[in-house]
Amino acid sequence: MQLKSMIWKELWQRPTPMLTSLLAVTLGVTALVAIQNITVFSERKIAGDMESLGANVLVLPPNVSLQDYYSADMHGHTMPESYVSQLALARLAGVENLAPKLCVAADVDSIPVTLTGILPRSEFQAKSAWQGLGMLTNAVGTDAGCCAPKASVPSAGDNDPDSLATNRTIDELGDRDVILGRDIATQLGASVGDKLPLLGEEFKVLTILPATGTIDDGRVFAHLHSVQDLSEAGPVVNVIEIMACCEEAAGGLIGKLSAELPDTRVITIAQVVETQIAVNGLMSRLSWVFFSILLLVGGASIASVMYANVTERRKEIGTLMALGATRGFVTKMFLGKATLLGLAGGVGGFAAGTILAAILGPQLLGVHVQPMPSLLGVGMATATVVAVLASLLPARRAAGVDPCLVFNDA
């Protein structure tokens, strides 16, 4: 008698109860892998955003709850565009750039798109009253702190439309020009110079931004005033994004901005990050809770199946032992089945969890995930241990069958 052949025979002859147990174990590993995968890559995304964006402040309508920095203008609430002028005229030290935005839904050849109105630097330069803004003139005031003086003209890099992806600013943008994120350009099959129908007008594709791994990859950017006029939204914006020149200046701005615009909600990127980190921590803890519960259910299911298997097959076990099978052989046969179930559940759960994370990550959090081999080891090891432990008592019961008593009962 070969142990391996006996184990495979057991699995193939009684697949239904084994598949039920396998499903419970697989679901536990799937939940752990999916949530942990999304959590880890979400934290990496936050770290990347912080590194690329520096010190930032958002001015929002008062009743907005913010979950993610890059989707700050997706809430549907608005505030007057005049707030931008008010901030510019306030000449607050530390303000390096103002970026008002308005986000509306639109269609391009029946394909839904997110159209985001932005204000290029040329609009700020065109208004002499705004020349006190730090991004256009040298920093003024004794509380400028660590802010370095700024040139009175945009930097050479901002003349490139692609700078919108890195600096989140652009120098020039025509009334009928659009800038496409990488993903939406691929979806539309659009190239630089193409004409796109938007809100009843034709827009020319000025450039296609490099991939950023953020929600901006799926957006269409146009001039703020064009979006306001064509959507009939009026002179309003969803968010005013402020780039501060250093962490200290950004921290000092909060009180001044709140005093200047008391009817708004002013938050820093640090607050957004703290909120996201808290959510990630909760998700991580919940993944272990789900994992533990589902594995306990799986373990109970395996133990029940194994006990039923022993009860139904007492005669077969007795026959095996009468033919020379030792108690150790019988024990190994049952534990071998449990080991295969655990390994299969770990591998299957890892594959299912990774696929689930790859689908839900971009949709729910704008996070692109990749397989994490370390989770494969964790899933396989834990699932196998649970399966083996759940099978120990049934295996000992099977090994304790007395062939003489079994045949006498018959």
Automatic annotation (TrEMBL):
EC number: 3.6.3.-
Transmembrane segments: 286-308, 340-360, 372-393
Enzyme's top EC category: hydrolase
Domain ABC3 transporter permease C-terminal: 289-402
Keywords on record: ATP-binding, Cell membrane, Hydrolase, Membrane, Nucleotide-binding, Transmembrane, Transmembrane helix
Domain of life: Bacteria
Domain MacB-like periplasmic core: 20-238
GO CC terms in record: plasma membrane
Molecular function via GO: ATP binding; hydrolase activity; transmembrane transporter activity
Membrane disposition: Multi-pass membrane protein
Compartment(s) where it occurs, according to its Swiss-Prot or TrEMBL record: Cell membrane
Pfam families: FtsX, MacB_PCD
Keyword Protein transport among UniProt keywords: no
Family note: Belongs to the ABC-4 integral membrane protein family.
Protein name: Macrolide export ATP-binding/permease protein MacB
Species in which this protein is naturally found: Rosistilla ulvae
